[in-house]
Amino acid sequence: MFALAFRDRVHGLADGGDFRPDRTSPGAAERTTEGGRTWRSAERSPDAYRSGSARLPHSRTAALAVGPTGTDLTTDGDRTWRTVDTGSYDTVECSADLGCWAAGAQGRVARLER
User: What are the boundaries of the region Disordered (predicted)?
Assistant: First the structure.
């Protein structure tokens, strides 16, 4: 795992996978509802390595995961993920104004808005 994002002290997600570009990463997303005591694999994980995660503000169920091959979104409490962008990003952070910022190699920056 390479990234953690918690909604509160007990609900969290972890994303990662094999960072080598020629490898897929099934099972690279997990979730906890017990503050990290136990973790469950997502029913459908991102297909590839993800290096950053962020919770969407004011949502109990939505989060983003970013990596070199794209951005994935979950809207069901980290159970399933779907690709929403194929741009390369290394990190993501969301702010209270509902905007999320992602950054990647060679100065790449993007803002995802509601």
Answer: 14-79
